[in-house]
Every structure is written in structure tokens, then in C-alpha cells.
Design a protein that fits this description.
The structure is a single chain. The termini are far apart. The chain has three helices and seven strands. The chain is of the alpha+beta class. It has a four-stranded mixed beta sheet with strand order 4-5-6-7, covered by helices on one side.
């Protein structure tokens, strides 16, 4: 990793109407528009959806690093994200983010360790650490079952309360 501080340069450009272009050197241009909730077309990414996506993206990338450092075996991570936009004291802002993290792990994986790694990823995600809204992690861990007699593969699901 490079020494801090890191700098990320992006140019946003637009005319009176139409999409906003988000331009960064050596990357494809992204386009955005107001979301349908703000009378936008509703068929393009918006700053709102980019922010919620950034929470999930950063969470997964942080999880990868923490899992690698913790030597946690895993096969897949899928996150469903919800960002809540509200008005508080006459200011419109994101008040919270929910991360429903669905982690698949191989047989014999320590579920408590897997849960700890998910929680550590949430605590160390640089995007969520940069936001003022509350972050709620809802972990779900699926442990692949040992095949019986070499036939098939099953899953044992561990819910947030530790129930199967």
C-alpha cells in the first residue's frame, strides 16, 4: 500500500440538461442523473446509488483484506445494501446504511471467526468510517455441508442470532 495521504481526482461535468459525466484518468467515463425520487429519469445511476454502492464495494474489499490476514477460508460474499435518505433538522442527508452480508464458507470453518471477520470489516471500511449515518451489519453465514457418500452439496445457514 502507498503511504498516506492518498488523493483521488475525478471531474464532474454537465450542461443545463442531461447526464452528469464523471471522468477519472485511465477509467471509463460514468454517467449519472437525478434519481426518480428527485424527478430524475430513474433509469441511470445517481449520486445516491453510487454512495450506497460504495459502501458495499468498500465493505467487500475490506472483508477480503481482513479475511486474508485472518486466514479465514470463504467462497463468496454477497451484500444487499440499503441507504436511508431523510430530512433531519431541515437538512436532507443519509441517516443510515444497512449491509445484509451473505457469506459462504467451506465445511469446518469456524462460524464465530467468520462473524468476527465480517464485523471487523465493517469497523475498518474507510467509506463507512467517512460517513455520519449509522451503519447496521446483518451477517448471515452459510456453511457448506460435507457431502454424504460423495453425493451433492448442502448448506447449513447460520443466522444473525446463531441459529441454524
Amino acid at each position: 500500500m502507498q503511504e498516506f495521504p492518498h488523493h483521488y481526482d475525478v471531474t464532474a461535468a454537465a450542461g443545463v440538461d442531461g447526464d452528469v459525466e464523471l471522468i477519472a484518468r485511465d477509467l471509463p467515463t460514468l454517467r449519472s442523473a437525478s434519481p426518480a425520487e428527485f424527478d430524475g429519469p430513474g433509469n441511470r445511476r445517481s449520486p445516491d446509488s453510487f454512495l450506497v454502492a460504495a459502501v458495499g464495494d468498500c465493505f467487500i474489499l475490506t472483508f477480503r483484506a481482513v479475511a486474508r490476514a485472518s486466514k479465514l477460508p470463504w467462497t463468496a460474499l454477497h451484500c444487499d445494501m440499503t441507504g436511508t435518505l431523510d430530512r433531519v433538522d431541515r437538512v436532507t442527508k443519509f441517516t443510515g446504511f444497512e449491509i445484509q452480508a451473505h457469506l459462504d464458507v467451506p465445511p469446518g470453518t469456524d462460524v464465530a471467526q467468520a462473524r468476527h471477520v465480517l464485523e471487523k470489516a465493517e469497523q475498518n471500511c474507510l467509506i463507512t468510517n467517512s460517513l455520519t449515518g449509522t451503519i447496521r451489519l446483518i451477517p448471515e453465514i452459510d456453511v457448506a455441508a460435507q457431502p454424504v457418500g460423495g453425493l451433492g452439496r448442502g448448506l447449513a445457514r447460520i443466522t444473525p442470532g446463531g441459529q441454524r
